[in-house]
Design a protein that fits this description.
The protein is an all-alpha fold. The protein contains six helices and two strands, in the order H-H-H-E-E-H-H-H.
């Protein structure tokens, strides 16, 4: 069993490591929160997907399959770009830098105490607001709003990484399609 899953697991880890270089992981909810485990989930999901793709397309692909793989690769690349744009846009609008660590999720609806504080201190940016509340974002915005936004960002992060990985996987399969059919082994006398 280990032999079967070793290659897909290694490929998934490699792909995730490569893609996560430019796709920033989801933000945290509060100061001192442990890092999100979404990366491990994405690696596991990719190992399964890689195993399924190679199981379904074992052997050298034919010339007809080359077109399918190229279209699939282009489609997943387009999907990844759109998802990356959505993830980046929402990440810019739903997060705020508090310290030198990863960004923190912020909400839209201020809690009553936070609303009063902001009214007394007009023009305050989100970083200062979070700092004044000692990094406790759940004292500024409703926790349910913060959790919903984080789940959406985590879901988009997962989809971006998986879509980029599938685009890379299908382009590798398309490049492996030389158009030559495998030769028949010589008949035994």
């Amino acid at each position: 069993m280990k032999k079967i899953w070793a290659w897909p697991a290694q490929a998934a880890t490699w792909l995730v490591g490569l893609i996560v270089i430019f796709v920033v992981s989801p933000p945290r909810l509060a100061v001192g929160e442990p890092p999100p485990t979404i990366g491990r989930f994405v690696e596991f999901a990719l190992a399964i997907i890689i195993g399924v793709v190679f199981a379904l397309s074992s052997g050298r692909p034919s010339r007809e399959n080359r077109r399918f793989y190229a279209i699939a690769s282009g489609s997943f690349l387009l999907l990844a770009i759109v998802l990356f744009g959505a993830y980046s846009y929402l990440g810019d609008h739903w997060t705020c830098r508090y310290d030198s660590d990863d960004p923190m999720v912020i909400g839209f609806t201020l809690l009553p105490d936070a609303a009063r504080y902001v009214a007394q201190n007009p023009g305050m940016d989100c970083s200062t607001l979070i700092q004044d509340f000692a990094g406790q974002t759940s004292l500024i915005w409703p926790r349910s709003e913060l959790i919903n936004r984080r789940l959406i960002l985590s879901g988009l992060f997962s989809l971006v990484v998986i879509a980029f990985a599938l685009a890379a996987l299908f382009v590798m399969r398309a490049l492996g399609a030389t158009g030559k059919e495998p030769e028949e082994p010589p008949a035994r006398p």
